[in-house]
């Protein structure tokens, strides 16, 4: 089984695959009578032939090391995972290599981070590491299939260094 070292999620490392949503630096604007900072427009939502929808997911937590045998992508829309707790979760992505996923990368989020996968990005399934695995998910709602799955011949083992 090939191994993948888990790394911290950073905007630079994740940029080829999507947007990292986090509070960093000063807010773009102070609102609500000076009681709230707004970090504005942090994700590029991208949908073909549909609309944005917000769904709630409740995923069973997984443990490390984690055997990755399946990735998926959504050709008609981006997908944004927003945790509803401050627990870390795994973010697994893979570059596209001729219509198939290449070597995966694995990231661990920090508290308060959310992610938005670009349209067509190969990624792992929602993978919380702790309960509750409750997430708000913003993705495409519309006609037709928007899911392509790929099973690896041999699983990849994701573990801490």
Main attributes of the structure:
1 helix, single chain, 161 residues, mainly beta, globular
Describe this structure in words.
This protein is mainly β. It has one domain: Jelly Rolls, CATH 2.60.120. The protein has one helix at 11-14, and strands spanning 2-8, 18-21, 29-31, 36-38, 51-58, 66-73, 79-83, 89-94, 96-97, 100-101, 105-108, 114-117, 122-123, 127-128, 134-141, 148-159. Strands 1, 6, 8, 11, 13, 14 and 16 form a seven-stranded mixed sheet that branches. Strand 3 and strand 4 (36-38) form a beta hairpin. The chain is globular, with a radius of gyration of 16 Å. The chain starts with a strand and ends with a strand. The mean pLDDT is 96.
Mean pLDDT equals: 96
Nearest-angstrom radius of gyration? 16 Å
- The tally of beta strands, per DSSP, is 16
The rough form would be described as globular
Strand content: over 45%
Task: Name the CATH superfamily assignment.
Answer: Ureidoglycolate hydrolase
- What is the H-and-E element order? EHEEEEEEEEEEEEEEE
In total, the number of domains comes to 1
What is the SS-derived class?
mainly beta
- CATH architecture descriptor name: Sandwich
> Cα distance, first to last residue?
16 Å
Biggest beta-sheet profile = 7 strands, mixed
């Amino acid at each position: 089984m090939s191994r993948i070292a888990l790394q911290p999620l950073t905007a630079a490392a994740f940029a080829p695959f999507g947007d990292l949503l986090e509070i960093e630096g000063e807010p773009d604007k102070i609102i609500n009578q000076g009681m709230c900072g707004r970090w504005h427009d942090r994700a590029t939502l991208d949908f073909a032939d549909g609309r944005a929808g917000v769904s709630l997911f409740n995923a069973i937590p997984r443990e490390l090391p984690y055997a990755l045998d399946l990735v998926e992508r959504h050709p008609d829309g981006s997908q944004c995972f927003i945790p509803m707790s401050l627990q870390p979760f795994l973010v697994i992505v893979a570059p596209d290599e001729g219509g198939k996923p290449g070597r995966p990368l694995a990231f661990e989020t920090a508290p308060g981070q959310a992610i938005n996968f670009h349209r067509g990005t190969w990624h792992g399934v929602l993978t919380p590491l702790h309960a509750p695995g409750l997430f708000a998910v913003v993705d495409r709602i519309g006609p037709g299939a928007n899911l392509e799955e790929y099973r690896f011949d041999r699983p990849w083992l994701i573990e801490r260094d």
